[in-house]
Amino acid sequence: MKIKFYKYHGTGNDFILIDNRLQNVTLASEDIIRMCERRYGIGADGLIFLQHHPDYDFEMKYYNADGSPATMCGNGGRCISALAAHLGIGGENLRFIAGDGPHQALILSVQGLVSSIRLSMRDVPAGKPDKRDYLFNTGTPHFVRFLRDANDPDFDTISEGRSIRYHERFASTGINVNFVSALGDGIFVRTYEKGVEDETLSCGTGVTASALAWAMEQDLTKGPVSVRTRGGLLYVDFLRNQEGFRDIWLTGPAVQTFEGAFEITQ
Description:
Blueprint: E1 2-10, E2 13-19, H1 29-36, E3 46-51, E4 58-64, E5 69-70, H2 74-86, E6 93-98, E7 101-111, E8 114-121, E9 124-125, E10 133-137, E11 141-146, H3 157-165, E12 176-183, E13 186-193, E14 198-200, H4 204-218, E15 225-229, E16 232-241, E17 244-263
Parallel strand pairs: 2-3, 4-6, 11-12, 13-15
Antiparallel strand pairs: 1-2, 1-17, 3-4, 4-5, 6-7, 7-8, 8-17, 9-17, 10-11, 12-13, 13-14, 15-16, 16-17
């Protein structure tokens, strides 16, 4: 069976997107693994179904590159919203539901295959730092650690991230790990993602978690915080009080790179 797909990325975090509103595509975890494999497949950090939902413009169903389901992906949420707009679903203000609940996507601009999208994220309770480490669930669980220079070429993001992700405290369910350092106009973030089991060029929920941790470090009551990743620049807006964070928005690009068809052997 040939499956039509679209390939998108959000600041280098790349995804296979499938329009499954007719619910005629069913993939086993091994199919997702094969499609996301970078040498023998299409290559991606994850796969997302765009599905029909009676109460929203669409439903987002996200799978990691290892075939495991996940609740939310911030970069993926912008990309699937860009695809929805490309397919003529809704208008410039989209409402969709993901595994962590409802989201809103505002299409700020479209220039060819590049869209700028502002995505609402879930409210987040105030975190309690353990020294300079933070734990937040911004749609998926994240560990945030501050470093003097996360971009130090001698720093091994994969090894350090894996040691935390597989620590006995987190190993059973897994956790994404972010390493953060200050920049003159914001922060720089590198992320090790569970389900990919590697460093990705960017992670939307990780960028969000890192910006909220930075807000606690700097005692900020509102955003935006500019966040640079290896894949590009993102912005996180929020309002903060003693209970935590609300009105959280992640803004950045969603880029269509190509589309095609992939043969799945039944």
